[in-house]
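pls design
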């Protein structure tokens, strides 16, 4: 008899429903209740944690058949491994069944009701890199202001996102530290717009996103969050992400080999970006959403403070630094 894989239970994502709680504890409580209910074949108890949207899409009789089929195929759930939190409202629990190993992905609303649920074969964890081996140069020339960068939430708005926890947002500046020429509502008014963006290290281009229009300053595009972007695998489990590039400026394609210092495109204002800037971070996989961020230390950085230049080696810039490459 052909086996049926119980892959997708239901997947409901409502953009307006998000959680402010940044902990996995709330997910653990819900999943532990669900595991007990599944093992007890107590289907009403499973459904008690469903939100209205889930119940509408997945009513009691339908969900009962699903869970009975899943248990018949895989058996009871014996153990859950530690969760991987995906801000702001999702967590993934590796689950050891009697006859299988699945990942349970759960999405909660503000009331901790389930609005998304997925069972898929377990995907092995990608090794977490504590310290990168790739020698990195800054991905640009000229002077730039670090708007977000550092190890804390106060220094870095990306802090709570596992793949971007050490990311940088960088604005081009002139010799006076200003980010724009005047006060017009155009991208060309910003010094960052159109500046060359370069590969920070040798590597292979794994992904390229192009064709995303540049935003009018102040208008953001969350539907294509990275905008025009280039993903470069510098070595195994060390991957550079360069985002918000200018429309039609990217000079490489997936499969290309690039060298350190090679121009890959121009700074733009595409994607979830309110003004022209470069987003850069390093993570452990080219699969953006599955990555864990790696703190970047650049080989050589010049910091400019009150007109004075200070040379740094193996330095990780922080919010407020004005920096440039040698």
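designed seq:
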């Amino acid at each position: 008899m052909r086996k049926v894989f119980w892959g997708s239970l239901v997947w409901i994502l409502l953009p307006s429903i998000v959680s402010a709680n940044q902990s996995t504890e709330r997910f653990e409580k819900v999943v532990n209740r669900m595991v007990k209910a599944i093992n007890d074949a107590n289907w009403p108890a499973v459904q008690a944690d469903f939100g209205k949207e889930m119940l509408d899409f997945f009513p009691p009789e339908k969900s009962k058949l699903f869970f009975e089929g899943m248990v018949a195929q895989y058996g009871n759930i014996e153990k859950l491994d530690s969760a991987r939190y995906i801000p702001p409202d999702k967590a993934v629990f590796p689950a050891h069944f009697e006859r299988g190993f699945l990942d349970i992905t759960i999405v909660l609303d503000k009331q901790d009701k389930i609005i998304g649920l997925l069972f898929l074969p377990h995907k092995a964890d990608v090794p977490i890199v504590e310290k990168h081996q790739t020698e990195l140069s800054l991905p640009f020339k000229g002077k730039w202001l670090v708007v977000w960068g550092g190890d804390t939430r106060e220094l870095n708005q990306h802090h709570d996102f596992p793949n971007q926890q050490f990311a940088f947002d960088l604005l081009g500046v002139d010799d006076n530290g200003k980010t724009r020429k005047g006060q017009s509502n155009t991208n060309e008014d910003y010094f960052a717009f159109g500046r060359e963006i370069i590969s920070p290290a040798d590597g292979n281009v794994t992904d390229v996103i192009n064709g995303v229009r540049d935003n009018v300053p102040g208008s953001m595009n969350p539907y294509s969050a990275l905008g025009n972007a280039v993903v470069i695998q510098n070595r195994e489990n060390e991957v550079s992400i360069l985002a918000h590039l200018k429309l039609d400026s990217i000079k490489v394609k997936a499969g290309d080999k690039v060298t350190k210092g090679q121009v890959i495109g121009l700074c733009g204002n595409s994607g979830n970006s309110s003004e022209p800037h470069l987003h850069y971070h390093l993570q452990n996989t080219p699969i953006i959403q599955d990555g864990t961020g790696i703190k970047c230390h650049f080989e050589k950085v010049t910091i400019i403070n009150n007109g004075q230049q200070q040379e740094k080696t193996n330095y990780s810039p922080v919010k407020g630094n004005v920096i440039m490459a040698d």
